[in-house]
Every structure is written in C-alpha cells, then in structure tokens.
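Let's study my pick:
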Amino acid sequence: MEHSSEEDWSCTLTLRIDDIRSLYEVISYSLEMWPGSPARPAEEQEYLWYMKKQLFAMIADYTFTNVK
C-alpha cells in the first residue's frame, strides 16, 4: 500500500454562498484575534490572509454574476 504526502491529497467541497460568507467572517475574526508569533506560527497568519482573499473573490464573483 502506497502512502502519499499531504501535498498530493486534495478534495472538492461544494458550498452555498451563505456558507462562503460565514467562512469569510470566521477567517476575518481569526485574523483580528490572531495572537501573533511566537504564540502561533507566522505561516498561519499568511495562510489566513490567503484564504480570506480567496473567499472574498468567491463572494465578489457571486455578487457580480447574480446582480439583477
């Protein structure tokens, strides 16, 4: 049995726009409350910023494509 690394593993998740908005708020809150390094790794903050930007792009895309 072969074991793959975590970098090789991926999945697809389908979320509704309300879920994306909620996740965006959770990430935003985490960034506001982030205790800083060395309490938490600096890479964690970078990843949170990355995720926040990705979620914002999804919200903007939804808003742009669903304006009536």
